[in-house]
């Protein structure tokens, strides 16, 4: 009898401890790891969420920028963190492309994390320096095809959203362009504003204010529908690239093994934040919007991540783009 009762008793003790922990969680500030430099689009999303989620949890959420290697350095740190709910991790679509882009990863994009939920789908924009000669997308297409060795396409580095969008664009127009990789979106945008590079594809969270300020030209958005904050900008599908679509989704994770009651608390805080009028307005100003509540769940993020890994792996493999 004793042999059979002990495991059951252990389970009761563990459940009781887990429940008690969840009831007191959090008792100290939480760190949200963002695997990119401060000031970029993912950092902007993170800081909006951190403020609202922190208010719900009654603890400060500190954003820690751990950039480098297309987000994999920050991801590795998050994967190795203590699974106690005091480290969470916000990443974008790059989390689904890293397994194909990098030959060696110290973590598994799916198995090393407990998903919390999807956050937002951010459209991208095809933009150029202010004095780029093409007036519209039709002229842009003709120009880059005729001058492919001279035209420079900036991106924020291997595995970045702008890199992925650029690969799809070059594949769609069957033209290879001269790419100029940067260490982040900020430096790439600075050189675009300064006229050192010709054009790039980047998230609306990073381009909307520059477009509205007339500092750069815009040729189209990469989603099926136009962006409400820029209703006059056509989709690339409308402009002449049928079926072209890419959005930069963001997801929130915790290290694998984080207690479920703690995950539930974080899910609840995330869902409250996504309904926060201030967050919704700021997202709208940046050309995006929060996901529906049913998508801000661990199950939805897990399924979305798996589907995107399956989508991007053959595209990256065909392009022959890898990093050690």
UniProtKB/TrEMBL annotation:
Residues 1-22 form the signal peptide. It comes from the Bacteria. This is Tripartite tricarboxylate transporter substrate binding protein BugD. Belongs to the UPF0065 (bug) family. Keywords: Signal. Pfam families: TctC. SUPFAM superfamilies: Periplasmic binding protein-like II (SSF53850). InterPro entries: BUG, Bug_dom1. The keyword Signal applies.
